Amino acid sequence: MKYFAVSLTMIAALAVSTSARAAKPAVASDPANTIRSFYHWYVTVLIANQDPMKNRVEMKRFVTDRLRNEIEKMVKGPDGLDGDYFVDAQDFDNKWATSISVSNVKIRGTKATADVLLAGGDKTMNKRLSLDLVNDGGAWKVDKVKGHE
User: Hey, how many other C-beta atoms are within 10 angstroms of the C-beta on 2?
Assistant: First the structure.
C-alpha cells in the first residue's frame, strides 16, 4: 500500500510537470525567419495561380488582424488596390519564392522593422520592401509593407 501511494504521488508530480511545460508560451519566432517563411509561402501560392488572401489560416499565421482588415477595406474601397499589397507590384517573378534576402532587422520590444529584397530572374524584377512586424502572442507577424521604387 505504501508503494502504491508513492507511485501515485510520482505520477501526479510528473503529470503536473508535463502540463506546466506544455502551458508555457511558445518562444517568439525570429522576424527574419518569419519574413522568409511568409514570402516563400506567399509567392509559391501566387505561382500556383491562387489567391493567398483566401487562405485565412496562413494569412492569420503571418499577418496581423489589423493589416488584414486594412487590406480588406482597401480592396472594397472605391479605388481598390493597384497591385498586390505584399509585393507592391502587379506582376511577380517565380524566383521570388526562393530568393528572399532580409536585412537591417531591428527589434524594439514587441515591434520590429526589416528590409526585404525579392530577387528576380533579372535585375528589373528585383523588388525592395520595408516591413513592420509586431510580436503577437509570441509570433512575429507582418503589420505593414512599403515598397521602394
Answer: 6
Q: What is the pLDDT of residue 77?
A: 76
**CATH code (residue 92):** 3.10.450.50
Give the pTM.
0.79
Tens of pLDDT, residue by residue over 16-46, are 343 333 333 334 579 999 999 999 999 999 9
Helices (H), the chain: 2-23, 31-47, 56-62, 65-76
| Range(s) of the domain holding residue 41 | 29-148
Strands 127-136 and 139-148: antiparallel
Rama region for 110: left / alpha / beta (φ>0; ψ in -120 to 50; rest) = alpha
What grid cell was written down for 145?
509593407
